[in-house]
Amino acid sequence: MDKVDQIGITIEENDAIETISGVGEAEFVYQKNVDCIKFGDIEVRDFIIEVGVMDYGFNLNGIIGMDF
């Protein structure tokens, strides 16, 4: 959450809140629609991201999902 906050992406009153689960326990995330995401030469426009706390005990700033 801290990294996206630095570029102006913050939770707002009308954002959807979801529960996700993986190998660990369930976590809460909020959804945001962003204009564009770039990763190297790949660019995706009008994309929904999920933002949440990622405190797994090691340095990790995000996860790229299969929908990207």
Shape: globular
Structural class: mainly beta
Rg to the nearest angstrom? 13 Å
Strand content: 35-45%
Rounded mean pLDDT score: 87
Question: What's the total helix number?
Answer: 1
Distance between the termini: 19 Å
Helix fraction, binned, reads: under 10%
Total beta strand runs: 3
H/E series, N to C? HEEE
Counting structural domains, the number is: 1
How is the main sheet built? Answer: 3 strands, antiparallel
Spatially, the strands of the biggest sheet line up as: 1-2-3
List the defining traits of the structure above:
3 strands; globular; 3-stranded antiparallel beta sheet; 68 residues; single chain; mainly beta
